[in-house]
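Pilot study result, target chain (223 residues):
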Amino acid sequence: MATVTQYSAVNLIADAKVDTDRWSRIPDEATIDRTRRAIEARKIRVVRAATADAARQALLDLIPEGAEVMNGSSTTLNEIGYEQLLKENPKRWRDYHAAVTAESDEEKRNTLRRKAVTADWFLSGVQAIAATGEIVGCDKTGSRVGAWPYGAGHLVLVSGANKIVSTLDDALARCWEYALPVEQQRAKRVYGTSSEIGNIVILEKEMDPDRVTLILVDESLGY
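Predicted structure:
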């Protein structure tokens, strides 16, 4: 079961005034399976996980012993218990994110953040998945999606099935009409300011069939 945090969508959607029936519902199994096949046709590996706990175990199984890992800020990763997995760290991963957040000098921290998009293993949530196979990510500065197209050695995306929509146009609309308003509510609570979309990345087709993995969870996760 997913871990609900104070910044989970359930605690933000009322103030965000978003249409959850349209933008955050679990499709039927036939739609999920059709989406999986469409994604895999684009040379992106898909791992199905029934629960958040199973998704966390899939991460543990996928990333090798002693690997360099970095993650973008992600409510989905928080909800599957990734922070706790890093604390326990049974496979002795080298946590690049900890090095970034520990740096007090802003200029040095920004330099580390830019280098971090080339980590061996980069983990991220997503904002939308089209049933036609495209995966969409968006953020304000690019720190969460900069690794997607090329930088990271391996890219691991984790998403609830609630982010599946019919078309790429719908996926882009989901970013603006659902993900952004909810993220703005989180940003106001954390930073005292609103957010915006500065970057959108679409994974249309991966050239290296071993580089990108999507862990697709049969639960509502993130936003």
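One observation from the pilot: The radius of gyration is 16 Å. A full batch analysis is planned for the follow-on phase.
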